Protein: Phosphoserine phosphatase
Amino acid sequence: MANSRADNVIVFDMDSTLIQIECIDEIAALTGAGAQVAAITERAMRGELDFEQSLRERVACLKGVSVNEFEKIFNPLPLTAGAELLISTLQQAGWRTVLVSGGFEWFAERVAAALKLDEYYANVLVTQAMTLTGDVGEPVVDANYKAMQVSRLKQQAAHVVAVGDGANDIAMLEAADLGVAFCAKPALRKVADICIEQPDLSLLLPELKKLGLIS
Structure:
């Protein structure tokens, strides 16, 4: 992964931020456990459950799913409106772009490739013979891990902006120089410097211009 220095860095959550869906809910729909997993996801996003515990409980429900099924979820790639414009504009201005997701690496890898992101970090779904075992690899990308990555990036850049939507992004936004809540849960909006309420990531561009972070 790239380690070049940049004046500014933007860090994104993935599910319901860079993409329109929650991947774990979509995988669960393939197993018939959709309602059960969606309920756990919603409680976690509201901050009512510890993220790692809820992640492990949800992934356990996915045991037996074939990785080949993931293609159905990502065809076509469900990018959020404005994501490509926002990222390409920032990249042209010399920004470094990073994805740090509590979601899954299979999906993060494809989002990062499509958007030409510099780095990506996400949870690994353990597989055996291309089938999910119901386990999550280590380390778990949780709120603390996200904040740790933001803190690392702050040592390498003049400004770090973090963008997310749920309670698992609170520490990340607090660690950043500028925290952006995107169509977010109330818990995240409380700690954000900027709230984007419409589902269009390019709406962040005029906000960054006001702050003099882009011309």
Notes: Residues 52 and 142 are 6 Å apart (CA to CA). The first helix runs from residue 23 to 31. Residues 1-5 have pLDDT under 50 and may be disordered. The radius of gyration is 16 Å.
